[in-house]
Amino acid sequence: MSNTLGVLANQVVSGPEEARALGDDYVTAVGKILNSHVRNEAAGAAIFDEPSIALAPTPREKWLACRMAMEEYGHHLKFNKLAAELGVEDPHARSPLSVFEYEVTTWTEYVMTKAIVDLAEVVLMEDLAHCSYLPLRKLCRSLMPEERFHVGFGTTTARQLAADPAGRDEVRRAAHELITMTLPFFGRSDSRNNETFRRWGIKRMTNDECRAEFVRRTRALLEEELELDHPEVDVRWHGTSS
């Protein structure tokens, strides 16, 4: 973990009034985090979860897909409430993350989005669970059980699918594609935004540290649990988003 000392290390900003008292830089930084979650929670629900209801093979799995869609939309609404209270910019002024360009066409592909993309969200939320902005910290901690349930559903179902020789190739293909597509999820290696987040105590980890933790966990999933190979990836990313 980065040893960069934030200006709000070990301090707590209790709400919008205290955030505004710190100035526009702090409000803007927290706003970027909130707006990213507003956009991407809605995108995930619409692009991954809703189509999965029709793809689910049994009534129980349709129920689970409905539950996860409902929870993701609920996360969107809760992040949107914090953004509105803070008075930040329009969250839809920017596009969702590129991983949401992945098209879910089979139940296996959906299962792997839960096992992999939602795992990336868990890694980010674990960091934000120590955020200096208390409303965001508390929200991430409260949503963590649902996010971990989504990942647990994905990993458990992936094990079942990979146990069938007829399904292993599709599990592997979807996993490799999604891991590669999810790497930019964490932002650029040289992100100025991330430097600002750490300076204000909003985040503790660099983007590369988060990405490395994500790769460590996906490698454990594929190699140890599913007995599949993991794609060769770089924990650095020098793309265009920050």
UniProtKB/TrEMBL annotation:
Keywords: Oxidoreductase. InterPro entries: Aromatic_CoA_ox/epox, Ferritin-like, Ferritin-like_SF, PaaA_PaaC. Its EC number is 1.14.13.149. The keyword Ribonucleoprotein does not apply. Pfam families: PaaA_PaaC. GO terms for molecular function: phenylacetyl-CoA 1,2-epoxidase activity. The keyword Plastid does not apply. PANTHER family: 1,2-PHENYLACETYL-COA EPOXIDASE, SUBUNIT C (PTHR30458:SF0), PHENYLACETIC ACID DEGRADATION PROTEIN PAA (PTHR30458). This is Ring-1,2-phenylacetyl-CoA epoxidase subunit PaaA.
